[in-house]
Amino acid sequence: MTGQPVRRRLSLDGVWQICADPDPAPVASAGPPESDGWRPARVPGPWQLSLDVRLPAYGAVWYRRSLPIEQIVGSADVTHSLVFEASNYRTQVWVDGIERGCHRGGHLPFEVPLGQLSRGQHELLVRVQLPDDDQTSADEPSFGQITHGKQSWYGPVGGLWRSVTLETRSAAHLRWIRSRADPERSTVSVGVQCTAVTAAALRVTVEGPTGEVVATQIRSEPAGYESLDLAVAQPERWSPTSPQTYRVTVRLLDGAGE
Q1: pLDDT tens-digit profile of 111-168?
Q2: How many contiguous H segments (helices) and E segments (strands) does the chain have?
């Protein structure tokens, strides 16, 4: 969008503060332990590799660090999100004492929307719980019930074991896109999830195998979920001997047209 800040990313990898939670239950305790329990540890990496801190193999661990918003904000009309490449297993996120999100899983990326944050330092707290085989909660799986990679053959892998990134985006932006081609009907169906902030228009373009535009559709004032069907005349089918591919491009437009 013209005049809007581009997406910016700030890596949060490096030295965080870490400590064990004396209450390993799935529901978070009232807060992390007192300051004398914190020790430095590197992220990304399983907490079991933090040699300078005495941490349990299973249970719950707290992470904390500051969010330097002034390094990434760029403009007042932006929103922020935390992007976790992976965290094992149950991850809860607080910013300035307010819980912002919870995720279950150990191997897929996820993000936590933070909305608009003012310039200055903000405190980020992350609590990660890795259950053991004695887990008794009806709402949470045991260690043996959750999926594992082969690294778990050698021992438990818990915590922020993949990279963490702070992202800044325009207030009006695309959250996700899905496309499906139907060669029998010569159409491409595109589903787009936008933020609640309305842009002037949404434009979807389909380019053919040689880069020419074969279909375009514009939807005015998109907000929320939008579904578009684009007709493609005489589509070229993909095959192993002739791997023809099409490119789908989705753009949000402002009043200037881009």
Answers
A1: 998 888 877 789 999 999 888 756 555 566 665 566 666 555 556 788 999 999 999 8
A2: 0, 16
Residue type, 140: E
* Higher pLDDT, residue 60 or 27: 60
Q: Is the separation of the CB atoms in 61 and 22 below 8 Å?
A: no
Mean pLDDT of 216-240: 91
Look up tokens 């993909």; give the residue. Answer: 238
Q: How many residues does the chain have?
A: 258
Q: Which residues contact 82 (CB under 8 A, 6 or more apart)?
A: 12, 93, 100, 111, 112, 114, 124, 164, 165, 166, 167
Amino acid, single-letter form, for residue 221: E
First CA to last CA distance, the chain: 5
Distance CA 239, CA 247 (A): 16
